[in-house]
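Researcher: Let's do a round of design. I'm pasting the structure tokens now; please hold your answer until I've finished.
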């Protein structure tokens, strides 16, 4: 695939990223990770995450250079042990008195925004590109509004306010992201996000209509054949089974619509993002292709009892990378020399910090 997105000089054209990993290479890493995680009763999973991320970061190439992942298994393990200890203590307290369960739930809700910030900041700071580290400067208050409140708004509105929540979330993440000391900024338009919701919303409505129609046809048919059908246990069992099938169908429809919406939002947000106010990002994922890859990955992974998981992960990573691009304003070498000069002090500071990852 041609890495050039648009015509123009090399310095001013969009250049696509590449993913150079292969399923066979990653399978070797993945199978060792799985086996050692099982043997160590889950302890090795922290180091497994490091090996996995280093492989995917190290094979994601942009402008001829790969990303790097600097976290250690120890950092991740400490975070997980803290979370595990909290869960154990919370369950013990809940067993002593139910009131403690309410208290621990409140504590989790209070701490969750802080944990979200810690997780994003940790992942940013252990990631580098061309020897310059990323950073995240968001606050817990911002995480509460954009992640927790935004998610609640989208849920309670049955998705009608999802574009608003998407805008809050992505503006919070990208506008607080730094490459060295150079800021990212994004401003996806709410109208564009709502246009992205049209197809998924139509899919959900049509899905509901079709499922409701099938249920109505089944009920009318049973009633016509036997007016007293609903008095039989077999009929009741069929109705219950039908309800489960309807719920399963709704999950499928919502899942597919969610993938379509996610790809569209990804394109809109990334294509609205700049680094240092001038270097543009772009994403041009095909919504249908993205959904097909995600769904077929799940199906193939399930049919092979997980053995094709490495293939699925590499397949998705390659597709997303090949449809992500950047346009550097100016001569690439000079621009990144400036980034490296201003980002060196920040990188040195991060190297001396012992961060903890609370994510899994």
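Researcher: That's everything. Go ahead.
Model: Designed sequence:
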């Amino acid at each position: 695939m041609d890495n050039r997105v648009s015509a123009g000089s090399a310095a001013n054209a969009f250049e696509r990223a590449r993913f150079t990993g292969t399923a066979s290479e990653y399978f070797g890493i993945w199978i060792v990770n799985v086996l050692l995680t099982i043997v160590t009763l889950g302890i090795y999973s922290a180091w497994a995450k490091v090996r996995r991320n280093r492989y995917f970061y190290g094979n994601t190439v942009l402008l001829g250079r790969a990303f790097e992942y600097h976290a250690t298994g120890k950092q991740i393990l400490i975070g997980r042990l803290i979370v595990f200890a909290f869960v154990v203590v919370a369950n013990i307290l809940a067993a002593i008195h139910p009131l403690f369960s309410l208290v621990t739930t409140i504590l989790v809700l209070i701490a969750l925004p802080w944990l979200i910030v810690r997780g994003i900041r940790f992942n940013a700071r252990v990631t580098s590109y061309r020897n310059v580290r990323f950073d995240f400067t968001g606050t817990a208050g911002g995480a509460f509004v954009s992640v927790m409140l935004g998610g609640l708004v989208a849920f309670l509105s049955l998705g009608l306010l999802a574009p608003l929540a998407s805008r809050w979330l992505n503006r919070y993440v990208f506008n607080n992201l730094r490459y060295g000391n150079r800021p990212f900024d994004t401003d996806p338009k709410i109208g564009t996000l709502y246009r992205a919701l049209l197809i998924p919303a139509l899919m959900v409505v049509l899905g509901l209509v079709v499922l409701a129609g099938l249920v109505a046809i089944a009920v009318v048919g049973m009633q016509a054949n036997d007016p007293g059908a609903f008095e039989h246990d077999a009929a009741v069992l069929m109705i219950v089974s039908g309800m489960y099938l309807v719920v399963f169908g709704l999950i499928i429809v919502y899942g597919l619509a969610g993938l379509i919406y996610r790809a569209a939002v990804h394109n809109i947000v990334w294509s609205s993002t700049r680094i240092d106010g001038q270097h543009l990002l772009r994403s041009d994922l095909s919504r249908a292709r993205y959904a097909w890859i995600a769904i077929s990955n799940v199906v193939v992974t399930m049919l092979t009892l997980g053995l094709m998981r490495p293939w699925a992960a590499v397949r998705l990573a390659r597709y997303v990378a090949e449809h992500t691009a950047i346009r550097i304003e100016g001569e690439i070498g000079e621009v990144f020399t400036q980034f490296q000069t201003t980002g060196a002090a920040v990188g040195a500071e991060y190297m001396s910090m012992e961060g903890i990852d609370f994510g899994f």
